């Protein structure tokens, strides 16, 4: 039913309002659609320094290696902290399309800014001694050299977009970090895929796709590194993923799907859930993002710079409070404490706001029930939500549901405040443990909009969610 991610609209980070991520429903009908992504196999030194390259095409997060290449990292970070890398450009790109005779592929920057619409080389600091210790494999960042002098590295760096070890290791180019995850690799590759030109004494000079060959470039034709900055994850709020109501007011229930808002808590490209090697469980570490609840990691639904979604572990059941911590690439936010409640039911809605028409499909064909496609009395429908608390039989956190887990607490479906018999109310088959499915037959109702709610124990899903009938 769910196409991987559903997020409420109501709670937003004050610094990320325009970048809110939402859930796309309309590929429903009980079908789990994971986004299979392999984690990048680079440095696991989570205590290392981590920076983000904010480029014209997105963010590239990089884990540096100060314990391996201390002088190189210190030199690089000096340029970062003084802001000298701000608004520099990528001035060289070698790839298999634009440079077919090359034995290595890379993108290079760090030394040029734009003045009067043309590249201008700024004066670098003194060079640093060579610290070659790691290979120039794909995804590493290394320092450029001047001629054959291995101790000439100063401000210019490059990303290895292919495994260049056979060509560059013999020349002792110092690799001092690695691209952190697949979204960052994708940005690196997108820059490397841009067309290149011979221009102003440069060969293999990349321009954005808006550049017209043969014309004098304008400023927005260049590929910029707008800034390079250290990452400092923080989060500002937590809300029920279906209702968008802040958990600071409702508490958090075991198995609830929540949305966490903040900054630097994920990559700059939205990355949806992935399964483990068995294909039966959603992973709890997604592209470097992890959320823990009293130390227990929850299954990740998606990750993004300003917003992540996660399933609350069932292990918090019976506890009075829970401490939530988000980590990205090993960097942790401060802990926030919430009350634990038995259940916190909420219904997903087509508007993704927690209000309006509920996420309901016809059981026979999977079509979405809406104002333009209302249900008729006697139709069998499937309603979707979350937050139904502990169920029996139990499934492991992150497991794809294969049975019929039902809430331990008493439960009911309400339409216009009246109890309606259900065919089933519990975990959604084939979905990650925590997604709720309610199967029911539409009773005799007048045509129009009807309030629909789910009750689990003493908790009732918020009003304002509707079922359309004819």
> What distance lies between the first and last C-alpha atoms, to the nearest angstrom?
24 Å
- Helix-strand category: mainly beta
- Kindly provide the radius of gyration, computed on alpha-carbon positions and rounded to a whole number of angstroms: 26 Å
Number of strands: 35
- Major beta-sheet overview: 8 strands, antiparallel, barrel
The helix content is under 10%
Strand order of the largest sheet: 1-2-9-7-8-4-3-12
Estimate the global geometry from the Cα principal axes: elongated
- Averaged pLDDT, please? 89
Unreliable stretches (pLDDT < 50, length at least 5) are 1-47
Number of helices: 4
Strand content: 25-35%
Based on the model shown, name its key terms:
disordered N terminus, single chain, six-stranded mixed sheet, 470 residues, elongated, 4 helices
How are the SSEs placed, and which strands pair?
Blueprint: E1 50-55, E2 58-64, H1 70-81, E3 88-94, E4 106-109, E5 112-115, E6 118-121, E7 140-143, E8 157-160, H2 165-168, E9 175-179, H3 182-192, E10 196-199, E11 202-206, E12 224-230, E13 234-240, H4 247-250, E14 257-263, E15 271-272, E16 289-293, E17 296-297, E18 300-303, E19 307-311, E20 321-328, E21 331-332, E22 336-339, E23 346-347, E24 356-357, E25 360-362, E26 380-386, E27 391-392, E28 406-407, E29 411-415, E30 418-420, E31 422-427, E32 435-441, E33 448-456, E34 459-460, E35 465-469
Parallel strand pairs: 24-35
Antiparallel strand pairs: 1-2, 1-12, 2-9, 3-4, 3-12, 4-8, 5-6, 7-8, 7-9, 10-11, 13-14, 14-19, 15-18, 16-17, 16-20, 18-19, 20-21, 20-22, 23-26, 25-26, 26-32, 27-28, 29-30, 29-33, 31-32, 33-34, 33-35
């Amino acid at each position: 039913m769910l196409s991987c991610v559903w997020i409420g609209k109501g709670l937003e980070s004050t610094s990320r309002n325009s970048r809110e991520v939402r859930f796309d429903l309309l590929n429903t009908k009980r079908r789990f659609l994971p986004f299979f992504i392999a984690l990048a196999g680079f440095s696991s030194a989570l205590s290392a320094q981590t920076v983000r390259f904010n480029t014209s095409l997105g963010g590239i997060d990089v884990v540096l290696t100060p314990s391996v290449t201390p002088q190189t990292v210190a030199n690089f970070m000096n340029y970062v902290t003084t802001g000298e890398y701000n608004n520099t450009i990528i001035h060289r790109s070698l790839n298999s399309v634009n440079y077919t005779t090359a034995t290595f592929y890379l993108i290079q920057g760090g030394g040029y800014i734009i003045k009067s619409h043309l590249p201008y080389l700024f004066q670098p600091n003194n060079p640093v001694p060579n610290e070659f210790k790691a290979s120039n494999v794909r995804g590493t960042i290394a320092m450029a050299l001047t001629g054959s002098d291995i101790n000439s590295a100063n401000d210019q760096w490059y990303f290895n977009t292919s495994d260049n070890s056979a060509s560059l290791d013999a020349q002792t180019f110092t690799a001092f970090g690695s691209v952190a995850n697949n979204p960052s690799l994708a940005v690196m590759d997108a820059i490397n895929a841009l067309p290149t030109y011979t221009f102003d004494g440069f060969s293999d000079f990349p321009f954005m796709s808006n550049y017209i060959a043969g014309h004098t470039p304008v400023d927005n034709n260049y590929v910029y590194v707008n800034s390079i900055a250290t990452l400092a994850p923080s989060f500002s709020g937590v809300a029920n993923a279906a209702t968008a109501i802040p958990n600071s007011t409702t508490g958090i229930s075991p198995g609830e799907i929540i949305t966490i808002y903040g900054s630097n808590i994920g990559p700059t490209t939205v990355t949806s859930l992935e399964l483990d090697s068995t294909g039966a469980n959603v992973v709890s570490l997604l592209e470097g993002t992890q959320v823990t609840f009293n130390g227990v990691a929850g299954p990740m639904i998606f990750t993004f710079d300003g917003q992540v979604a996660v399933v609350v572990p069932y292990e918090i059941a019976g506890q009075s409070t829970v401490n939530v911590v988000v980590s990205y690439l090993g960097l942790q936010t401060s802990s926030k404490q919430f009350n634990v409640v038995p259940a916190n039911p909420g219904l997903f809605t087509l508007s993704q706001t927690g209000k309006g028409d509920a996420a309901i499909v016809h059981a026979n064909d999977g079509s979405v029930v809406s104002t333009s496609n209302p249900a008729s009395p006697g139709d069998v429908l499937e309603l979707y939500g979350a937050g139904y608390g502990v169920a029996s039989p139990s499934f492991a956190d992150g497991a794809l549901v294969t049975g019929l887990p039902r809430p331990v607490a008493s439960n009911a479906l309400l339409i216009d405040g009246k109890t309606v018999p259900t065919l089933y109310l519990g975990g959604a088959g084939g979905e990650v443990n925590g997604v709720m499915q309610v199967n029911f037959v539409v009773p005799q109702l007048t045509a129009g909009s009807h309030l629909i709610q789910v009750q689990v124990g003493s908790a009732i899903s918020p009003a304002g969610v509707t079922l359309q009938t004819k």
